[in-house]
Amino acid sequence: MINPKTAASQLFKTMEKPLIPQERLLRLLRISITQLLLVGLFVSTSHAEIFSGQKTLDKTITGKVSDGNGERLPGVSIVVKGTQRGTVTNEQGTYSLSVPDQAPGGGGITLIYSFVGYLSQEVTVGNRSTLDITLATDTKALEEVVVVGYGTQRKSDLTGSVASVTEKDFTQGVNNSALQLLNGRASGVQISQSSSAPGGGIAIRIRGAGSINSSNEPLIVIDGLPGASTTSISPEDIASIQILKDASAAAIYGSRAANGVVLITTKKGTKGKPQVNYSAYLGVQTVAKRMDYLTTPQYIQALNDLSTDQGGAPKFTPDQISSIGSGTNWQDQIFRTALAQNHQLSFSGGSDNTNYYLGVNYLNQDGVVLRSGLKKYNVRLNYQVNPSDKFKVTLNLNTNRTMTNNILTTNSGNENAGPINTALQFDPTIPTGLDATGRYPFNPIISLENPLALLYGVDQKKVVNRTFGTLSADYEILKGWTTTLRLGGDIANDRNDNYNSTVTQKGLSSGGIGSVGAGEDTHWISELFTTYNRTFNGIHQLSILGGATLEKYDSNDLGASSIGFLSDASLTNLLQSGDGDRGDNVSSGRSSNKLNSYLGRVNYTLKDKYLLTASIRTDGTSRFSDQNKYAVFPSFALGWRISEEPFMQQNNLFNDLKLRLSYGQSGNQAIGNFQTLQTFIAGGRAVLGGGLVQGVEPARIPNPDLRWETTEEFDVGLDFGIIQGRLSGSLEYFIKNTRDQLFNKPLPTTSGFQSILVNFGEVRNQGLDLMLESRNLVNDFKWNTNLTLSTLKNTVVDLPDFISQILTGGVGFTNNYSLVQEGSPMRSYYGYAINGILQSKEEVAASAQPNAKPGHPRFVDQNGDGKISPDDRVILGSPFPKLIVGLNNSFSYKGFDLNVLFTGVQGVSSLDNNIVESLYPINFERNRIAEHYLDRWTPNNPGAKYPSGVNPSTYGGALAVNSLTISDASFLRLKTASLSYAIPLAGKKVRSASVYVAADNLLTITKFMGFDPDANASGNGVERASYNSYPLNRTVRFGVNVGF
Amino acid sequence: MNTIKNKLSILALMVTCLLPTGCQDFLAEEVYTQYSPQDFLKNEDGIKKVLYGAYSRLQIGGGLREDQWTLSEFPTDITLESGGQFEKDALPFMNFQWDASSGFFRGIWVQMYIAVRNANVLLENIDQITSIPPARLAQYKAEGQFIRAEAFAHLHRYFGPVPLVLTTSTENLQPTRPTNEEFIAFVAKELTEAAKNLPVNQDLRGKADKGSALAVLAKFYLNTKQWQKAADAAKEVIDLKKYKLFPEIENLFAVQNEINDEFIYIYPFLAQGPGNVYMPHAFPPNYPILSNWINYGAQFRTYTAFYKTFDPTDRRLRMFVTEYTDTKGVKQKLLEDNSGKPLDNARSFKYTPDPNAISQNNGNDVPVIRYADILLSRAEALNEVAGPSQEAIDLINQVRARAAVPVLKLADYSTKDKLRAHLLKERGWEFFTEGKRREDQIRMGTFISSAIARGKNAKPFHVLYPLPQSEIEANLNLKQNEGY
């Protein structure tokens, strides 16, 4: 057995390195700015001394500084009170300081000893020349305070599972969404970028996904306002993000908490001199990875070979080949090097009665695909005023305008396909530029528009203006008893303009197609809650919360479109210039829903060791019928701070050890309106009398019994800190069951209705979350490692008896690949296993594919019935990673900081529809992935990796979902690496300054063929597919941060 | 100000919601975009809108391609498809490999049953609306009956007898299939009643009138082989003296001629949608088209063998394109290659491209039943009842004369079989591209043999399509057709 204490000290020792004393300054504090100031002060002081000479007699004080356990403390700062004179303890924890015999204002000399994590101590020198000091640990200061629902808690008091990420740990990059700050930083939290387009979607999954048919997105709460947007905010205004992972932490948010809750807290001003901070970067973005499609000569060769193999004449004659020349690489035509720039200016400060923070942000990101980009303006004001000691008024206000230019991103596969997919598959023998008639040329056989026509002929603009904030008043009625009234609002206006001009075939046939959609979404919330905190007899700490809330969501939209315009020049700015008789269309809509909730929570702590939390929330919604309007979401949690027990006091390994147990219930209200009502709706339009007449019809068979989808979660966690906190972390196990899923139960359609919404079914997520934070080197050269690691097992436990399986999915022309069935992960990939290539006619004859040809893939006849039928489909992969990992290493030396973040997922699959369309082309003349045809089976290449490509439709079609097209989407990515340098500053005008260079997405290790294994053509849902992906950007950022 | 008021009202509500009585008023669901059923079931105006809702489902709309060609011509000797994303959906129908999971079966099934439901809403509630004068009330009811019966008849052609759902009650959501006799009797009775109460002329084109109800009845009798009744019903249509053949068959399907005396019952289409999407599938590659047209990759082609059965002088041949000069100036042949090998690539341009089409949407109405069909149906029914007769020959000759082909002589048709065989050919020449071939071949018993002759693995059970798999799963009382 290794003695933990020895082991610890050895570990400590091996990391020690000889240090030059002056460099000690730099290892003192995590906040290097303060250190730098201190350096500045010393420099100036010593200079002053040199030039002014010594006016007073000095004497030298020596001594050593230790902690409560007798361990020497290096790096403790010692300052002569009232002066700027001081030093720090050395490696051995000793110091030597010459002090004047008299304080500046007269009187005895006092020294101030301070060190982060310890209580400062002031000692009067008197006559002594040796001063040995013991610093006591400052438990309160060490305690991180974390934001929880409707309040804050010391981290040590937490009983639920809360991941907390503060500004210094945010993942940097060209970030549009606050969620990107969390990438790789919190265990149990998967952030994936479903599209890398500027303003593209970010999916977040907290501990998997529990809902089959409803949303799996967590509730976002910004400064107490639920349902806020993570993109209509400047990431640089954010101070910290807490993720309420388990049901006990999240249950206080009741019916919206089933997928976890993300609490975003923005920056506040602090008392003191006004501070101005400016930060900016310029990013140079390129396509991180291009896809290798056949080059023009390869394409000609491949098509000629395939034509011959299919028994025809070569597709291209030598004359044609020579006239084609070098052809066109269409990826080169649509991609570009694009710039991104970001500027953030903030002002903050405060006095005794007020504090303020004002942040202004501008982000301008061009996309790496032509004609895509984003501009964003954001202003935030956080202002707090305390009219009296008992009364506090706080305003948090954010306003944002985001303008996005989007390229077409449909998952369609023909003339209406997006330009990226089109560029991949477009005929490489067609020259770039316009043809003799002034139009972009295309190959009519392949049913694809020219990619440049799609880029230059289609305008898609989206503008969102969003303002949200809260105004709250806190009044302390009695000591420890505070009541808060909080009013919040969120108003979002958006406008989408789409114009498809006559440059495209589709636009031409309609004379231009223009549409404008505008909408307004509002959310109002009023909350009244009261908290009571008191400690009884010094050992019973009690905190009680009670409150009620009312919320109303209202959204309305308006759409107008026309076709056949006088000219393309007016785009969507003059819809009335369209052909009114043939193509005008208008639409509008409105919906609202309301929530009423009551909430309560008790936190009880006995002797700082035994912790108990119980919470309850009752939510009522307008969406359910009277008998089911309200539902109760309780939670219960226990904590035991083992490290505080007497028997642990002699232990030097653990400075912190806590066991947590929790249980809670939360709900998912992602259900449409009116499901419990019988209504009539505007139904089909009949053509009568040569015109359209609007009909009406019943909307549904209502289900008055509908209730919330409910998630029950059990969580056990261990938080630990060892070797004086050099290594800390937490390990948690959770099991989460989501039951009463909302299902559209198929109805016999003889009723005229296709389905009825019912509650049924259960999905389980279970896994481990591990978080480790290690301070490997703590001296001048610092090295910190943060590891987040999560495992996940997602299982569909129970499906309704009326649905044995659900088969969905549709991307391009590939359908029904995503399976929900009992015992498997939700939305598993379902298709045919392939175990090689049929080599000979004999092998074909003996196989289950008598009509196949040598060179065709060999499908596994799972049930051995001698034919390949839908019954032979098996599960080929899961859309959930088995393992999610984030590894951050930061190194600092002097003013240099190097930060390297890896993120990765393992054990996840995706349907790569580009592979589908390459192995089984929609059309013979579409371009294909090079590898598939450079290593295709021919009689002379029997060991080929890929099938022959001869008559591929005979082994494609419904068979195209197979083990060749369901791809391993695991990856390890060097997400970001940054090197920054804090410029040493002597002057007082500039408080701090640093410059940095950073690279994002520098390296991705993956077997995946597509642009980005992380991308998802199905958006942010659980179902995954890769198709028409906007390519991942590799970005190099040059940045500066200046503080005044 | 509104914002402040809004907040104040929320605040006021909040105080009340803090009381133990709860907050049911606040949580009442507000409905802005849907209606209370009562709004539409209490007066004539509301009933009209319910009726429009029912018509909208009966008019096939966006399901035209599947209904008229995929289900009704691809399994026959007239039309084939290749290319485009649609090919993989079309292949099973060309090759007799369809199964119950095809979405096309569900598509037509669901659409017709929604029409039935909407008609049932009307029929169940209309008697309570006393403000409608009796004559108009009878007419609305007749339209409801027509829509419901025609929806059933439509489904019968594909699936055989299907559940007769005659109520909007949700008490029994799992109805059973009636016997074929029960089904046929019910539909015939409903159509007969509807025809009795429908006017000869309607206010809006596209609505059911006496002629369309009788025509549907005649075709229903014909397809269910009730020959005498079919002959009688067809006679009733003829005796209305409302209909006659349009003189130029090759121009009958052009948009400018769609208001004519020949179309009896139509699916109406408009260029602004719902559109007739046939032509984008018929244009051959690089065919010179107007800038407002579009040419799809999925190509609808004609078997050369079928084309060759025509009399070369037949005016109906004018509706085919067999060669063209493409946009690159290259002359393309569609019928046969230079060695005389059939290309099966001639194009039926029956739905003359709409000069005002908007992209894929052409405004050409689709005749479900036109007068030529009634003439040939009566001829067929008469032949089946009593063998060849001068009346039958004359009926056929009306159609042939319009096509400018030599008239038939009774003497040449000595047997019922001979005339039936000719009628099948005549119907092919007359009704290609009109979605009639499958039912004609089935009725005349050649559907399977013709497929086998084309090399398809067709089995006798293929004369009925399978009920949609999802429906079988949702309704345990539903029995699947034999063979599936």
Structure described in brief:
Chain A has 1044 residues and is mainly beta. Chain A is built from 15 helices and 52 strands. Chain B has 484 residues and is mainly alpha-helical.
Structure commentary:
The complex is a heterodimer of chains A (1044) and B (484). With 1044 residues, chain A is mostly beta strands. Chain A is 11% helix and 47% strand. Chain A has 15 helices and 52 strands. Chain A has a 22-stranded antiparallel beta barrel. In chain A, strands 10-15-16-13-14 form a five-stranded mixed beta sheet. A four-stranded antiparallel beta sheet of chain A has the order 3-2-5-6, with no helix packed on it. In chain A, α8 (419-425) packs antiparallel against α9. In chain B, 44% of the residues lie in helices and 6% in strands. Chain B contains 17 helices and eight strands. In chain B, α2 runs parallel beside α6. In chain B, a hairpin with a 5-residue loop joins β5 (323-325) and β6 (331-333). A two-stranded antiparallel ribbon of chain B has the order 1-3. A two-stranded antiparallel sheet of chain B has the order 2-8. Chain B has a two-stranded antiparallel ribbon with strand order 4-7. The model of chain B has no long low-confidence stretch (mean pLDDT 93). Chain B is mainly alpha-helical. Chain B has helices at residues 2-18, 44-58, 64-70, 87-94, 103-125, 134-159, 180-197, 210-223, 227-239, 278-282, 304-307, 371-386, 390-402, 416-431, 437-443, 447-453, 469-474; strands at 79-82, 263-267, 299-302, 320-321, 323-325, 331-333, 347-348, 366-370. Chains A and B meet through α10, β24, β25, α11 and β26 of A and α1, α2, α4, α5 and α17 of B.
